[in-house]
Amino acid sequence: MAKTSQERHFMEIAVEEMLRSRTEHTDKTDPLVGAVIVDSNGDEIDRAHRGGLREGNHAEFTLIERKLGDKKLDGSTLYVTLEPCTRRNPPKKPCVEWIVGARIGRVVVGMTDPNPEISGHGIRYLQSNGVQVDLFDVDLVESIQEANLGFIEYFDATESEDKTSDVFEGSADTENELVTNASVDDLSLDAIRAYLYSRKKELPIPSESLWNFLYKNGFLSRNENEIYVPTIAGIVLFAKEPADFLPQVRISLEAQVGERLITDEFVGPLIDFRLKIEDFLKKHMRSFTEIREFDRVEEYEYPIEALREAAFNAVTHRDYRGGQRVIIRLLSDCIEFKSPGLPLQPLTLERLRSFNAPPYSRNPRIAITLKHMKWIEEKASGIIRMRDLMLKRRLRPPRFDVDGTYLKATFLGEEHAWRNIRISPEFMNQLEDLERQIVMLLIKNGRLYTGKCAKQLGVDVTTVRRHMRRLREKYQIVASAGKGSKSHYVLKGKL
Predict the structure, then answer these.
(1) Catalytic pick from 60, 83, 301, 309?
(2) pTM of the complete model
C-alpha cells in the first residue's frame, strides 16, 4: 500500500493524466506519461501529460517549464508515471535536469524506462543530486505497463543504436564495464545461439554482424584499439567459463538430505542456469502424496514455479561488484535464496515484505535478456506471483530479510506435514468429526495404536476400529501395519 491515502490519490491522478497523452510519431510507439506536482502542504499545484500543450513535449517539461515556469517549486513532490528521461536532442534538456533545476524535493516514479541504455539512470541522477525518489504502488505500475505495452515491446524487439554514455555520478552500471582480459573467443557459441533463437534473430555464428548485434545490446564494447571486448553482462550471460574472469558468478547450491549435506555449484553461462537449478531442486526436494477428494496427487514440497522465480531474481538483481556469490540452500524446513547486495534504493525491505515492490534492477541488460528467454517477466508481479503460488499450496508466503550484505528470501515448509503425506482441507471437510481427529493424530504422531487412540479421543476401542475401517476402505487413506501387539495404523502414501 502507499504510505498514505493521499499518496495513492496523487499516483492515481498521474495515471489518469497518462491516459490523455498524445503521440507525435507514426514510425514508433511513444510512451504515455502523466505527471502531477504537489506542494509541501500536500496540495496539488498542477498536472500535465505528454503532448498536452505541444506535440512531443514531455509531461515533466510541460508541467515545470510551460505551465509553472513562474512558480517556485522548492520542496514540492512530483508524481510521474515513467522514469524521467536523461537524454534529449540538443538544445532540449532532459527532464531530470528540469526537475533538479526547479529544486523539486521528491519524485515518485511509476515504471522505469524499458530501454536498458537508460533504465535506472533517471532515478540515480535524481538521487545523486539530492532528490528523494520513491516508487508507485505495484498494482498501479502494472496498469502503467499495460497502457505502455507497445512502447515496452518496441525496446524488447530493438537493439540500441546509440552507445553514447550518459552515466551520471551515483549510477551503478557495473554490468556495462569491460572485462579487459576477455575476448569474443571466450564466449559460448551455443549460449549465444540460444539467445538469438529467443530473439528470433538469424545471424551467422560467428560473424562480424553477430559481434555488432551483441555490441548494440551491451554485451560487447570496444577498447581503445576498437576491438570488441565482452562486458560483465556479456561474460555473465554467455562466457564458456564466466568464473575464470569473475569468480563471484559461481552459484553455490546446498541440500540437506537427512544427516548429509550435499553441495554443488553452477559455473557456466547464466543462459544455462535454468536447467541446472530445476534439476537440483527436483532431485533434492521432498515430494508428497497429497490426498484430494478421492485422488492422490504427487507434488514437490514447494511450488517449482515460485522457487524458479526466486532463483532468477537472485541472479538477475544481484550486485556483481564484490566477491560474494549467490547461495541457494535446501534445508529440512525451508529453502533460502541469498543474493549479494542490499535492496537497491528506492526499493526497501519494507516494500518487499509487503509485496509492493515494482521491478527495479541493478542489471537491466541481464534482466531483459532473461525476459527474452521467457525466464522472468518484467511486469510488476514477480514477488506477488511467488506469494500467490505459495498460498495456493497452503504454504506461508516467502519472507524477506537482510543477512549481512545479502538480501535473503526464505520459503518456509509445511508446518504440519507428516513425512511425505498431505491431506487437503477440502478432503478433511468431508470426514466426520471423529475421523478428522483420527487423521490429525496420524499426521502428528505418524502412527496410531487402537487402544491409545481410543484413550486420547475418549471413546471405546470398537468405535475407533469402525472409523479406521471406514478411513481404510472408503477413503483409502489409512493402512494397517505391524502384527500382533505391534499392530498399528498409518497414513497411506509413499512410505
Answers:
(1) 60
(2) 0.82
